[in-house]
Amino acid sequence: MIAIPYKSPDRRTRAQFLFPASASWQQAQKLIVEIGPGRGDFLFHLASTNPDAIILAVEIKSLRVDKLVRRIQKRGMKNIILIQADGRDFLKTFSEKIHALYINFPDPWPKQRHRENRLMNPRFLSSINALLTPGGFFSFTTDDQTYATYTSRLLQNIAEFQSLEEKRMSTSAPDAFPTYFSEKWKAMGRTIYYQRYKKL
């Protein structure tokens, strides 16, 4: 693995790249991003099913990054780039470079006083349009109904996004890859909400 510091005057947006030497995202013909890969279940699925793409994983928590580094090394995957950063700030420079963006089970910050911490907020969702290539794909999955409804209403205001779900939000996705958290929440009786969009 190679570590390259991404310098920023703001410590909250400072990032660190961790990736196999053979990977070069600058030259990637196809760039797929996952924000908050957690244990890496879905990340490894993306990497194995898209061998021709560079998979860019953005994780803000150091402990998760450390664990993911070991798991990536153990699997010998060469098309994953792992970045420790706040995705909302780091991805600002990726104008129309991302072919697909996935966000699975982010912290819903359910308390009213904490909602400003939500990843899915008006500013970030508006910026996604600029990040995706024409025809690009965006997927958001959560087990929190309030968060799902809140996000769906925000996405309705983005004219460039076309929902791929009949009612903008679905509780069934037969093609969804089962991850540790999705199966855990289902086993607890929770409903999973899927939102998928295409950039026009």
- What is the helix tally? 6
Percent of residues in helices comes to 25-40%
* Succession of helices and strands: EEEHEHEHEHEHEHE
CATH homologous superfamily (4th level) name of the largest domain? Vaccinia Virus protein VP39
* Overall geometry: globular
Number of E-type strands: 9
- Which sheet architecture does the biggest sheet show? 9 strands, mixed
Q: Under CATH, the topology of the largest domain is which?
A: Rossmann fold
Summarize the topology.
Blueprint: E1 2-6, E2 15-19, E3 31-35, H1 41-49, E4 54-59, H2 62-75, E5 80-84, H3 87-90, E6 98-104, H4 122-131, E7 132-142, H5 145-155, E8 161-163, H6 180-187, E9 193-199
Parallel strand pairs: 3-4, 3-6, 4-5, 6-7
Antiparallel strand pairs: 1-2, 2-5, 7-9, 8-9
Give short descriptive properties of this protein:
200 residues; alpha/beta; Rossmann fold; nine-stranded mixed sheet; 6 helices; 28% helix; disordered N terminus
Describe this structure in words.
The protein contains 6 helices and 9 strands. It folds into 2 domains: 1-93, Vaccinia Virus protein VP39 (Rossmann fold); 95-103 and 111-179 and 186-200, Rossmann fold, CATH 3.40.50. The relative contact order is 0.15. A 9-stranded mixed β-sheet has the order 1-2-5-4-3-6-7-9-8, sandwiched between helices. It has 200 residues and is an alpha/beta fold. The chain has helices spanning 41-49, 62-75, 87-90, 122-131, 145-155, 180-187, and strands at 2-6, 15-19, 31-35, 54-59, 80-84, 98-104, 132-142, 161-163, 193-199. The termini are far apart. The model is unreliable at 1-14 (pLDDT under 50). The chain is globular, with a radius of gyration of 16 Å.
